[in-house]
Every structure is written in structure tokens, then in C-alpha cells.
Amino acid sequence: EVQLVESGGGSVQDGGSLTLSCVASGFTFDNYAIGWFRQAPGKDREGVASISSAFGYTRYRDSVKGRFTISTDHAKNIAFLQMNSLKPEDTAIYYCAAYQFYSGSYIPGLDSWEYDYWGPGTQVTVSS
Known about the structure:
The chain is mostly beta strands. It has strands at 3-7, 10-13, 18-25, 32-39, 46-52, 57-60, 68-73, 78-83, 92-100, 117-118, 122-127. The strands form two sheets. Strands 2, 4, 5, 6, 9, 10 and 11 form a seven-stranded mixed β-sheet that branches. It has a four-stranded antiparallel β-sheet with strand order 1-3-8-7, with no helix packed on it. β4 and β5 (46-52) form a beta hairpin.
């Protein structure tokens, strides 16, 4: 059974940093895309960053480029989202998600409909 569990959320001030972790079980990262998404109150869920580490691809939404970094530790089956220079507009529940590549492009998606497995989320609050 595939399971994803996020941790590392919390409250920080404008300009602060947090690192989110996503512990995965039931699969390995070798043939999967891992994505980080977020959802703020009253807003749609949006893709923040994604990675297909076995193929060397990463993607970021424009608003977090240069501030957020996605990475994975294959040995421990953990994905990370390092978030620097946080802004109040980054406040949201952050979710880790995964889907398996079957064929074709191995560029990881940033759309929620592409992902089959989701964690319960972790709250990130950035105050001004």
C-alpha cells in the first residue's frame, strides 16, 4: 500500500525558512514522480514543485523559483521541499503526492489530476 506522510510545517515570519519532509512507503522513487502541492483557504490546490529524481527532472511554479528546492533521498525514500525567503502568500496546507510513470515523458507533472497518491498535508503559516 502506497502511503505518504508529510512533516515539517509550522509558523515562521516573513523571510524565514522551513524544510518539509515526505516519507514514502509502499513504493520506491525509481519510476515515480513526486510533487509538492499547496492549498490556501478559499483557493484551488496548486502545484509548487515536482521531481522525477531517477530521470533528473525538476519543475517549479514561477512564484517559488529561486526560493524553493525539491529533492529526494532514495536510500531513505524521503522527499524534501526546502523553502527559503518565505512570504505570507506562501501560507497554505502543503501536500506531498506521487504517481507512477508508465511510458512516454518522464517530466514530472505539476497538475493535481496527474497524481494518484496523496499525503494528509502539513500546515505552513508565514506571518508578516
